[in-house]
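[User] Could I get a sequence and structure tokens?

[Assistant]
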Amino acid sequence: MFKSLGKILVLNAVLVFLCGLSGRAQYNGGNGDGFDVIEISGAQVGIGTKQKSISSIHPNPAKTGDILTIEPFQKNLSSMFEIVNEEGKLFKIGQLSGNKPNRISLQAFLPGKYFLVVKELNETYTLVIK
């Protein structure tokens, strides 16, 4: 019983550290079925969401020949981008800047679904060309 109590307390400490779990835990023992019971009360668990680096991509959907405008959230953004189709074929590569809206010509793009991949930030956005 004390062995499993130690494991539970260690597990509780790991949860607090990794997940930001707060509250209190109380060991209630077991009922003889081989399982121990621990009660956690007052717990607050949250999953942080990271703000994307791109505030808008327009027009989307776009048409062949349109100029795609990418507006960043981050003023200090400097990242390579790729535009690939659903099969992973590379159609465009370039550099995004956070100091101004970025404009990309869609002249050579056929209708279909594409993905804008912001490389250094590991973000992917869907682009549809009609």
